[in-house]
Amino acid sequence: PEIPILERKNWLIYLLYVRRDYDECKAVIKEQLQESHGLCEYAVYVQALIFRLEGRIQESLELFQTCSILNPRSADNLKQVARSLFLLGKHKAAIEVYNEAAKLDEKDWEISHNLGVCYMYLKHFNKAQDQLNKALELNRHDLTYMMLGKIHLLEGEMDKAIEVYKKAVEFSPENTDLLTTLGLLYLQLGDYQKAFEHLGNALTYDPGNYKATLAAGSMMQAHGDFDVALSKYKVVASSVPESPPLWNNIGMCFFGKKKYVAAISCLKRANYLAPFDWKILYNLGLVHLTMQQYASAFHFLSAAINFQPKMGELYMLLA
């Protein structure tokens, strides 16, 4: 059957977009839009997706808005408009558009999930939880579990966060991000057995997972196995050389081995990468104090107190 002029090159646009041949794709879109006098919804839609990938969010927003004018009954067009608003940091406007999209398609988990994320950024945690729970009822996704857990952590509800991540791991036992996050939470609670179990599982599925490797190294370090911990950190350093916690931990391993000059150089690197991290400043103060370099120790401990004024140990060291 004869395909209408508006749709004639849609298959080619789709093919080029999926192959990531964006320059060629743009050329075909331009032709298609000239032929159809700008009325081909699909061409405009793909052009907007390409703009978004190129970081031209405002232009992509305008094109998605054009799509929703061409086809006002499409929930997908409204979702993309809302996504662009979200990327521009306009969370309230994004919520309004997502609500419009929800009227057109009530059973879409993505709309509920994204509404939850928008509410989270606006610090409306109760509404965010409602939307994310609704998204999980519609369709269980790892990403939704991650966000729900994050909200519980922001509210300081560690137990609820652990429950959410446990459910998530039951649903998706091979997701290394979930396993690592759960392992780190157990580590914070001091439950080393469970922490090691989850971090070990994460490393079984993905031996290159630097977060899990770093956490496993820190547990060995806490038990005084500095050489074993350093061997773990060496693996991490090759994949993420710019990680402040990594250099902080390496520095404290050297401190434990009484190699103070090496400790200071590693901690200085960590401080350069994360100048506002009070833990690194605390450690620098501690090492300088051990080396009897009191002026430097005073400098770093004072800086740490500015960021963490409610910690008694810092004042003790300063005194």
UniProtKB/TrEMBL annotation:
Cited Pfam families: TPR_11, TPR_8
TPR repeat copies, ranges: 75-108, 142-175, 176-209, 278-311
InterPro entries per UniProt: TPR-like_helical_dom_sf (IPR011990), TPR_rpt (IPR019734)
Cellular compartments per GO CC: ciliary basal body
GO BP: any one term: cilium assembly
Biological source species: Eurystomus gularis
Identification of the protein by name: BBS4 protein
Family: Belongs to the BBS4 family.
Keywords assigned: Repeat, TPR repeat
